[in-house]
Amino acid sequence: MAALYRLTAGHRDAVVLATVLTLVGSALGLAQPWLAREVIDRGGTGGPYWTGLLLLAALFLGEAVTGAVGRFLLERTGEGVIRGLRHGLVGRFLRLEMREFHRHRSGDLTSRVTADTTLLREVVSQALVDLLTGVLVAAGAIALMGWIDPLLLLLVTLTVLLAAGVVTSLLRGIRAASVQMQGAVGAVAADLERALGALPMVRVHQAEEREAARIGERIDSAYRSGVRTARLAAVMSPAVELAVQGSFLLVLVIGGLRVHSDGASLGDLVAFLLYASYLVLPLSSVFRAIGLIQRGMGAHERIQQALALPAEPASPPARPVPAVPAVTARDAPVLALRDVHFAYRPGLPVLRGVSFAVPDHQQVALVGPSGAGKSTLFSLVARFYEPDEGTVLFGGRPAAELTLGECRSRIAVVDQNAHVVHGTLRDNIAYGAPGASDAEIRRVVELARLEEVVRRLDGGLSAVIGERGGTLSGGERQRVALARALLTGPALLLLDEPTSHLDAVNEAALTGVLKDLAAECAVLVIAHRLSTVQHADRIVVLEQGRVTATGRHEDLLLASPTYRRLAAGQMLRPAAPAEGPRATEPQDPSFD
């Protein structure tokens, strides 16, 4: 309860006002049976009762108005609380540490923003105030019933206590079942997102039935948990109803006999019966609120767990365009790694003492067999992870001395997945620089060889390219990602397999683009196709997490067995002679 109450911080004034209005409405409702008693007694003695009837109508109308206003305030407060939670969850998820992000399924995280917060909204907008007002109204009704007839009140109390005992025994089961159901719903969302995200693969391999069966198991699990919750709630509701109805019948029978035999007041009996019936609503709201709070606690736990996940510090506002930061130390390389070690899990190192540098306005290529640690190096440069040992330097300054925003403002990344989001082609190109001018966008479109794509699409740059860029080919998505990276004007451009989706013609064109890029920024490129990087200013050979050689293409063919094997597998010949240092063993980047 205390945890749920803390959710209303910042909305307390509205909650208090809504509670007061609800209590006022309830008080007006409590006054109605008492006034009806007076009207009946006066009518039975021949006294005037029209004034009482008019006052009764006014009380009824006042109860309706105050109740409606109070309910609206509560609903608005609930929406405000959930709005804040959703903003917090979205902000947290978008800044999750990469280690943490890979431990969770995105569909389950999405479910916490949608399904869990929706359930929690009902608790905030209804259950908390219903519990408070229900208890107070029930206490008032019971006090007035005791004033009218203590004996009949005793009968009602015994039946209500019996129902309360049954309800209490069911609450723990309802909460546990609710937690299981929310978890199963999150698993459904995660598995469905998994299948839809790879729908072409699913269909080509005729795996629709298998994926449907996998998701169906999650749905069945949610169904079983939901049925368990419903079964417990189904037992709880009749217990409350039977207690209320049973007490009402007892009052009616015993009270009627007393009026008949003892000459008790008929008005008292009617007022007591009205209070007994009036007691149904607050008691039902109390028991319903308790059950809803138990279910909401499961959603609250999942939300709090998500909000507690470790996240990166908040990023600064987007940088202007172009934004090429100046190198902070004279003649220092744009990027340098010094004796960098890293492991995703203890005891399983991925990088073992990597050292190399990327000078300004030069192209450096990373090559090596799969699993050598090339993509991991990119993750460290982008500061998705921090090295276990060693130092990453930007412009001669250790990354640890810079904020994440300062580091990332120096780089742009084009990875092999070539992420494209739903929206227009212009939106995707200008994603990292939303304030870019048309001239700047046209320039990067030309650099990335996207002119033909712009002409082909209906609407050109304003064309909507669909979910995950479904209207574009793999090579076109790669070029869109390249244009997006170039538009930010980075000091260092990271290219991860930029030719993985390109044909020979476009690969040759991109090779020309890479040469042009060196005039604007430094380039660090991962390539399996050595033909793309054989003219690079320097090639770094990475094997089993270690730099085994550096140099130019023709020098590495002579000095590096690993590079020679890679080149032989692609049937590459020595490039034309070029000036530059001979291939060497790994060296400290400070000497570069």
TrEMBL record:
Domain ABC transmembrane type-1: 16-295
ABC transporter domain residues: 335-569
Keyword Transmembrane appears in the UniProt entry: yes
Region (Disordered) location: 573-592
Keyword Lyase: no
Cross-referenced InterPro entries: AAA+_ATPase, ABC1_TM_dom, ABC1_TM_sf, ABC_transporter-like_ATP-bd, ABC_transporter-like_CS, P-loop_NTPase, Type_1_exporter
Gene3D superfamilies referenced in this protein's UniProt entry, alphabetically: ABC transporter type 1, transmembrane domain (1.20.1560.10), P-loop containing nucleotide triphosphate hydrolases (3.40.50.300)
Keywords: ATP-binding, Membrane, Nucleotide-binding, Transmembrane, Transmembrane helix
GO MF: ATP binding
Subcellular location: Cell membrane
Transmembrane segments: 53-74, 127-145, 151-171, 232-257, 269-293
SUPFAM superfamilies given in the database record: ABC transporter transmembrane region, P-loop containing nucleoside triphosphate hydrolases
Pfam families linked: ABC_membrane, ABC_tran
Topology within the bilayer: Multi-pass membrane protein
CDD domains: ABC_6TM_LmrA_like (cd18551)
Superkingdom of this protein's organism: Bacteria
PANTHER family: ATP-BINDING CASSETTE SUB-FAMILY B MEMBER 10, MITOCHONDRIAL, ATP-DEPENDENT PERMEASE MDL1, MITOCHONDRIAL
Descriptive protein name: ABC transporter ATP-binding protein
The organism of origin for this protein: Streptomyces flavalbus
